[in-house]
Amino acid sequence: MKQYTRTLWQSVLFWTIAMAFFAVFRYYGIFEDSSIKEANGLDINADLRIKVMLFALSGFLMGVIYANIEFGLEKYFSKRFSMGFNIFLSTFLYFLFIVFISTFVRSIANTALGLELNIEFGWWRNSLVFRAAIIYTFIASIVFSFIKIANDKFGKGVFLKMLFGKYREPKEEKRIFMFLDLKSSTTYAEELGHLKYSQLIQDCFLDLNEVVPKYDAEIYQYVGDEAVISWPYKKGLVNNNCVELFFAFTHKLHTKKEYYMKKYGVTPIFKAGLHGGTLMVAEVGIVKKELAYHGDVINTSARIQSECNTYKVSLLISEKLLKNLKIERYLSSKFLGKVLLKGKHNEVSIHTISKV
Hints:
This protein is an alpha+beta fold.
């Protein structure tokens, strides 16, 4: 619901503004010649406020429809069909709803403003305005999709910061990192073969992606069978997000146990290491531009995760991070000792957290 709500308000805001701008562009741009008339006889240079309101209403309705189509396709169709089919289906649905919304708004304009806009079936075939709106909507949809993809790639709000060059020079940030790794991955790879094993990892990470947005997390990168997840420090602490995500992902895999056993003959189990603190973030690369995090926090998180096998637990967390969490009644922590992690000079106190 949280993910749907965010998608909805972003879509409604974008399309309302986009269609309001379309009204302004038409008013001051293409049809600035007052002698030009629409096919139905309406003066193109009618009151700008009325045009903006009508197109903004269209944009609002389009935003609602767009969000529901995107959310529905992503949730129910993206895993079942190819990207090409999903694009074709979404384009077809967008066209149908644009026709419906345009007809609905024109009927409102006729009733409320006393206009005589054509709303008979097929009116859009000869409407220059509709053709222009379709082209504009197509371009705006590409822009919106680009922003969404970039936002998903870099994390919420990061794309705009990169666009304005915030990370051209390294910046200091306080973040929490989780290194999430598949247990017994070497054994699985040998038993399943590279194709089946690759499909297993793909399925696991698809399930992970359904969990991540619920806990305000960002996936920093995938490295083979490992995922690196990150939070701004405060967001990771809220409601113990950084810990709850691991238990939610574990539960998700458990509920799909039969699916994994039937398809792969195994039930995937992941181990995780958690640590947080201050590190540097910078924009790197030219051909392939991305954000990179540098500092001891990254290295320590990875080293902590590597100790899971030693202590035979699924989740390890540094004492430094644990002290900032609020352990609830249904959670319990256990001190495992101090370890000298590979490559470090100072010992790190580690704990395991489990559900009671």
